[in-house]
């Protein structure tokens, strides 16, 4: 199974699953295509990571800016089916060790946070709706204000997603980008046909910079889900970015 690792600190592990394993589709999302095979793929991933599905948790993402704290007793939720998944949350965080947090993505930006001082990890799904709604800033700000995380010790990984050169957006999205809480003019470029190229990874990074997270603490994946077709599918939400605190 192909995994892309975020190498941060020894006390956490974080990986993005690739969409293909020797040209075999490794779908990780219960989307009705072949859920029995998805379950087998998830079990294979758990085995690869020396754990099991009862120590993993997933939400049913709905492109919201809602987030939730999860605990060890949430392990297994959303892993064997969608029936008991945490519905309507696009981000999770936990202090509990040995609990893998999942976030699903196609072209959307998956984001992981690690607050080293408080030993908290978070997994965030930031599609364009979440990005303009500033979900990453909301989660990070909550951790700073309510969980006593210091921005200086907050680390972030913005995972494989669509790059600006491939992200075409129209006025409906750009109008929302312009309403974000900071100056966004540097994050979109207008083309001759009137559409725009949008830098979603940059918008997410800026949300963290606005909270005084040091730029050197933010890692941005160079992978584009459009261009790296040997690794990713950008059509459906079938891959995951996962993180665990040891």
From TrEMBL:
Entry keyword annotation includes Zinc: yes
Keyword Transferase belongs to the record: yes
Catalytic activity field: adenosine + H2O + H(+) = inosine + NH4(+); inosine + phosphate = alpha-D-ribose 1-phosphate + hypoxanthine; S-methyl-5'-thioadenosine + phosphate = 5-(methylsulfanyl)-alpha-D-ribose 1-phosphate + adenine; adenosine + phosphate = alpha-D-ribose 1-phosphate + adenine
Domain of life: Bacteria
Keywords: Hydrolase, Metal-binding, Transferase, Zinc
Gene3D superfamilies: CNF1/YfiH-like putative cysteine hydrolases
Pfam families xrefs: Cu-oxidase_4
CDD domains: YfiH
Function: Purine nucleoside enzyme that catalyzes the phosphorolysis of adenosine and inosine nucleosides, yielding D-ribose 1-phosphate and the respective free bases, adenine and hypoxanthine. Also catalyzes the phosphorolysis of S-methyl-5'-thioadenosine into adenine and S-methyl-5-thio-alpha-D-ribose 1-phosphate. Also has adenosine deaminase activity.
Family affiliation: Belongs to the purine nucleoside phosphorylase YfiH/LACC1 family.
This protein's name: Polyphenol oxidase family protein
């Amino acid at each position: 199974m192909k995994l892309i690792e975020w190498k941060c600190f020894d006390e956490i592990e974080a990986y993005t699953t690739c969409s293909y394993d020797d040209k075999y589709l490794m779908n990780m999302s219960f989307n009705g295509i072949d859920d029995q095979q998805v379950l087998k793929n998830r079990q294979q991933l758990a085995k690869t990571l020396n754990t099991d599905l009862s120590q993993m948790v997933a939400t049913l993402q709905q492109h919201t800016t809602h987030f939730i704290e999860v605990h060890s007793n949430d392990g297994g939720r959303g892993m064997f089916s969608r029936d008991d998944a945490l519905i309507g949350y696009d981000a999770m965080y936990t202090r509990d060790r040995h609990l893998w947090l999942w976030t699903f993505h196609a072209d959307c930006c998956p984001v992981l946070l690690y607050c080293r001082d408080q030993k908290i990890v978070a997994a965030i799904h930031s599609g364009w709706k979440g990005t303009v709604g500033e979900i990453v800033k909301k989660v990070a700000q909550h951790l700073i204000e309510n969980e006593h995380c210091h921005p200086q010790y907050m680390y972030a990984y913005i995972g494989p997603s669509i790059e600006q050169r491939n992200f075409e957006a129209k006025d409906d999205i750009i109008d929302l980008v312009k309403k974000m809480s900071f100056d966004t003019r540097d994050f979109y470029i207008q083309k001759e046909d009137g559409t725009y190229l949008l830098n979603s990874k940059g918008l997410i990074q800026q949300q963290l910079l606005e909270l005084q997270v040091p730029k050197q603490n933010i890692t941005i994946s160079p992978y584009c889900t459009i261009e790296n077709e040997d690794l990713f599918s950008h059509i459906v939400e079938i891959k995951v970015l996962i993180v665990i605190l040891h």
